[in-house]
Amino acid sequence: MINIAMVEDDAELAEVLTEYLSKFNIKVTNYEEPFLALSSLKINKFDLIILDLTLPGMDGLDVCKQIITNHDIPIIISSARSDITDKVTALQLGADDYLPKPYDPRELEVRIKTILRRYNISTKIEEKPTKVFIFDEEKKEIRKNGKFIRLTAAEYEVLSLLIKREGFIVSRDDIFENSDLLNSDYDNIGSLAVIINRIRHKIEANPKTPNYLHTIRGMGYKFLQ
């Protein structure tokens, strides 16, 4: 169920909208007093707010500003005020939509679902986990959880190649072919194993049971994060 807070001092309108939206699995809790609504937001979770601008004791734009400052929640302004300045100000403050009164409740229902659909997608993108390892090819730096990893030139070449091919098995021959240093200074399997071991000591909590740099027996290495 969609849970909505409405800040509307017109009790009759609030009742009509509450009854209509309930048909679409939308529960509305109305607050006629803006201060009561602001207090409720501190302890209750809502998916969206419908906010009138003409309210007792506090201008709706000030309410809008407080909500945006203190909460991460979409807002639809529902107002009979026809001044374009109010609309522009509300949207500049961060309101998601502005619906001038009078309007058809069906339009409000559609706008609610459209905004929540967009908001949920946006939230999912923002909450996508950041990668543990960041490889900056231009600066030739590798960081783990933002902390710079001190690597020798050979270690950097091997680890950067594995990170670039994250999720794929990289053969030993592949590593030699893509590394100038290994070709000239470490052109044997034993030396590569030593480098891999040194890298693990720098990036793994327990090098003997690696979480990131895995040996695929008979095939090569795979980097996962």
UniProtKB/TrEMBL annotation:
InterPro entries: CheY-like_superfamily, OmpR/PhoB-type_DNA-bd, Sig_transdc_resp-reg_C-effctor, Sig_transdc_resp-reg_receiver, WalR-like, WH-like_DNA-bd_sf
Keywords recorded for this protein, A-Z: DNA-binding, Phosphoprotein, Transcription, Transcription regulation, Two-component regulatory system
Gene Ontology MF annotations: phosphorelay response regulator activity; transcription cis-regulatory region binding
All residue ranges annotated as the OmpR/PhoB-type domain in the record: 122-225
4-aspartylphosphate modified-residue sites: 52
CDD domains, per the entry: trans_reg_C
GO cellular component, one term: cytosol
Residue ranges annotated for the Response regulatory domain, each copy included: 3-116
Segments of the chain annotated as binding DNA: 122-225
GO biological process, one term: regulation of DNA-templated transcription
Name this protein carries in UniProt: Two component transcriptional regulator, winged helix family
